[in-house]
Amino acid sequence: MNLVDQFNTDFFRLDGKVAIITGGASGLGQYYSKALIKSGAKVMIASRSDKGVSELEAFAQKNGPEVGFISRDVAAENAAKDIVAATIKKFGQLDILINNAGIQIRNKWHEFEDEDWQRVIDVNLTAAYHLAHEAALVMAKSGGGKIINIGSMQSYRAGKFIFPYTASKHGVMGLTKAYADALASENIQVNALAPGYIDTPMTKILQEDQERNTEILNHIPDGHWADPSELMGAIVFLASPASNYITGVTLPVDGGYLLR
Ligand code: NDP
Description:
Blueprint: E1 18-22, H1 27-38, E2 42-47, H2 53-63, E3 67-71, H3 79-91, E4 96-99, H4 114-142, E5 145-150, H5 163-183, E6 188-195, H6 204-208, H7 210-219, H8 232-239, E7 250-253
Parallel strand pairs: 1-2, 1-4, 2-3, 4-5, 5-6, 6-7
Helix pairs in contact: 1-2, 1-8, 3-4, 4-5
Bound molecules: NADPH dihydro-nicotinamide-adenine-dinucleotide phosphate (NDP).
InterPro entries: NAD(P)-bd_dom_sf (IPR036291), Sc_DH/Rdtase_CS (IPR020904), SDR_fam (IPR002347)
Organism: Weissella paramesenteroides (Leuconostoc paramesenteroides)
GO molecular function, one term: glucose 1-dehydrogenase [NAD(P)+] activity
């Protein structure tokens, strides 16, 4: 497909598109929401609480497109069906899914409870599977779409105090590849974004541990913990037509962490 004549920076725009972002009103998710809103997309947030939703609504009012909200635990029965149905009801279409909701439980290997394992796998991996399934059914009918899963450095490496999290994020990478292969013929690109070490509440415990903090900073060629806003460009790229020939990759946004 020769695009030379048509190509311009509008390929990075999302005007008229509709996105679901799980956990999209707080933590890193709010930066994905703001990035998509600024690029022209309408955004449906799905999370348990409405923390951050009114702030996003105000942001959307200032920047153009609308925001919707559905309160759901993504791991609950039928949550994926409900979230996709609510999006279609409000916006009439679905073009982009960002599976961002995630949890982490830290413990020594011999102290992990079975229910901790199950909960992390349910939220981080199984919910992403169900949401991708429901979203793909809609996208396939409408001619295509984008599914972006959120991985982690633990998609590549081990974390000895976060067994279930490491397994879930390796799983996210595998799920991304399998769906990318299966959905390519439907013009649905499936990729993952793997944030490196980002300055958020989830990582405060590491930043405050002086020894671990120094270890991490020495491991990042770029030399700093990223601000969450440093992920905004990559998420828009993966959601936009500019990345249409990219599928099945897990893109590290890590200041070079994985190089060492
Ligand atoms: P936060 O804990 O700050 O935010 C998580 C978001 O997900 C919240 O909006 C929360 O909303 C929502 N959420 C959590 N559980 C559920 C659930 N069961 N159902 C619906 N929504 C849920 O986490 P981060 O922003 O730090 O992380 C976001 C994603 O990025 C995760 O997948 C994480 O693994 C990944 N990541 C984070 C990194 C970091 O440095 N912070 C690094 C690499 C990856 P509510 O509580 O209202 O449901």
